[in-house]
Amino acid sequence: MRRSYIFIAIVAVLVFIGLNSIYIVDEREKALRLWFGEVTADIDDPGLYFKVPVLHEIAKYDDRILPLDTEELEVTPADDRRLVVDAFARWRIEDATQFRQAVGASGITGARQRLDRILNAELREVLGSVPSDAVLSVDRVSLMNAIRDQAREQALNLGILVIDVRIIRADLPEQNLEATYERMRAEREREAADEIARGNEAAQRVRAQADRTVVETTSQAQKEADIIRGQADAARNAIFADAFGRDEEFFAFYRSMRAYENSLKGENSTLVLSPDSEFFNYLGSDESAATRDQ
Question: Which residues of 71-82 are buried (b: 16+ CB within 10 A; e: fewer)?
């Protein structure tokens, strides 16, 4: 019975040793085999591997592309307008041995902290060398590429490859937004006032030109009317003169009729004349004054 217990114990120990002598590297992982902290094997291929139990330590790292989202960072571009920037990076472990030597046992967590410091430093350096308009514009790909390239160079010492860096948001700080909005509003109001002034000036020019055209047209029409009226008066006078030359009696009769018409035109006209006045020569008799004189 005692031998059975011993046998079972031996088998259990052997199974334990056997299970602790093998390890599996997934296709999504990189692995390092360590002997008292020293790297003895860098394993990139997935599969089943053996180790010395207890003496060998296996460190596994994610071989996929990993994200890194930075905290909000306040930067000061070249024109001294502060900006709040959000960015993210994509990275992966390129050299597991160098990665282990750089970050030690802290692994991915320690790498993220160090990479975050690198990325923040490069954001400040690159964005601080350009005006804020370049950061706020949609055409900032060159800035992101510059940040990526510089961060990649720094991260190579950690055994890390920085694949991409992107700026998610670049805005003014909250305390500066209202002042900026006020400046923008004042600028728009000034532009609107300038446009209104230019519009009024243009309208005044149009009105002045229209008034001038009216005056010129009226003057020209008045001139033409006076010419026509003068020509008509001349023609009328010529007709009268011709008629007077042909029949003096008719001309005298016409002048008397016009005199009667003009003198009696008013509503309350009163004439005080002698009955035998020459004014009534054509009213008192069918004979004309010329006939009576004869």
Answer: eebebebeeebe
* Residues 73, 120 contacting (CB under 8 angstroms): yes
User: Model-level pTM?
Assistant: 0.54
Domain limit, last residue, from 138, 172, 206 = 172
123 in Cβ contact with 160 (< 8 Å)? no
Q: What's the structural domain count of the chain?
A: 2
- The CA distance from 186 to 154, in Å, is 45
The residue type at 37: G
Q: CA 22 to CA 1: how far, in whole Å?
A: 32
Same domain, 8 and 39: yes
In a shared domain, residues 135 and 163? yes
Among residues 26, 42, 174, 158, the alpha carbon closest in space to that of 89 is found at: 158
- Stated as kind and residue range, the H or E segment containing 86 is strand 83-93
From first to last of its 294 residues, the chain has per-residue pLDDT tens of 667 767 677 767 666 666 567 778 888 888 888 888 788 888 888 888 887 777 788 888 888 999 999 888 888 888 888 888 889 999 999 999 999 989 888 888 999 999 999 999 999 999 888 888 888 777 788 899 999 999 999 999 999 999 999 988 887 776 666 666 777 888 888 999 999 999 999 999 999 999 989 988 998 999 899 999 999 988 888 887 777 777 777 777 777 777 767 766 666 666 666 666 666 566 555 554 444 444
* 140 DSSP assignment: -
> Which residues form the domain of 81?
66-172
